[in-house]
Amino acid sequence: MSPKKAPAKKPVQAADAAPAPVNKKAPQPIQVLRGMRDLLPIDQSLWDETRKISESLAKAYSFDRIDTPMVEETSLFIRGVGRSTDVVEKELYSWETQGGENISLRPEGTAPVVRAYIQHGMLNMPQPVRLWYYGPMFRYDRPQSGRFRQFYQVGYEVLGDADPIIDAQLMVLGWNMLKGLGIDATVRINSLGSPESRANYKNALVAYFRSKKAKLSDDDKKRLLKNPLRLLDSKDPAIQELKAEAPQIVDWLDEESKSHFFRVIEFLDELGVPYQLDPYLVRGLDYYTKTVFEWYAASDDMELAQTALGGGGRYDGLVESLGGRPTPAAGFSLGLDRIVSRMKEKQQKQAGEAPLEYKPEPVLVFIAQLGDMGRKKALALFEEFREAGIAVGEAFSKANIKAQMEMANRRGAKWAIVIGQKEVLDGTVQLRDMDAGSQEIVDVKKAVHEIKKKLAQRLDNPPASA
Ligand code: AMP
How far apart are CA 446 and CA 373, in angstroms? Predict the structure, then answer.
């Protein structure tokens, strides 16, 4: 059978041969969205610290982790946080899906946690239920220093317990976290009382500010109508002045809220947590009842001293208003972006004028290679170390031994293993002690074992420099 003739190649057409048209305008690089940012490797060790301490305190205080979705039905936040709060009225990222659902990126973590608590029948578990979360929140805030449109919070919620000791313990937890991260902070506290006492106080406040209407800005007049308590934390200098004469909520508290508040303070005194009573602290979200609190870092900088690192309080009505049975609860969240920024300032202060440098993850062993055979063997040896649980580094794409040794130093390796053609043929490796500068030849099959042995010796008998 004669072989089939290959089909004739299509002649190259003039049009095919012509070079592709040159795009004269180079594409513009795309920037991150306004108010959003990348958390870069140089800062990840600080973020890691926040993750570690969040988890270890959660364990210490018996909180279980919960992760809720980043999007929820918009009505959850309208009902939970409050329709006329800034967070819902101005700052929600909301949209309608193809299926016609109204959904929003979560602006805070408490309402979703309460939704999950109700949805999964946690009301029927032994109470209180203690839950914690760590993750991004989204608010369409005006971007400015310390305000992002995606930011991170860690939060702790105790559901199903009305005791004031819970409020105090939550404040201790937050204080311990800030202290553990090297931030000297105080907690400001206040009580908003029961919904009834709060409503009575609101009326008194509205009457007072109405009598001063001429001095109010248009924004403040709107606040007076919609959310008069927010006037108390207005930054407007006119309000600051008027505030001094304004009625104070402590005078309107019902007996139960008052005694609850005094108990919280007694517990804080007992624990030695530094706190300040702040009659104007109201928090921006509608669900709070009784105790509210916010953390502020001690700082000489007025602006920093006035920027809250986190806050929380009791929200005894929220479970019911989201469809569960009446359940007392309290919780708080800390804003990690601001915390990391304080940690970074501290790091910078310690470094003086020197710029902060990215430090690669340290390793115990670094594998350097020479030539193609060495490189292949090194690849397999790397896997052996990794599987043995030993922190190991490499620079396989580098051929130059000096560059590889520099890398070993930068990663803080205690031992370097060098493997070239001769070693492959002999079935050995060179093992260098990076501190002592000494070198020995060991059997490649025993390399992992040898390092383990040396490590054990080193732990028993650490060198003076280590
Ligand atoms: P809030 O419950 O609104 O008081 O938020 C609790 C904490 O989250 C605040 O004290 C801030 O540390 C942080 N936070 C709130 N909004 C933002 C934002 N837009 N950007 C960065 N951090 C924020």
Answer: 19
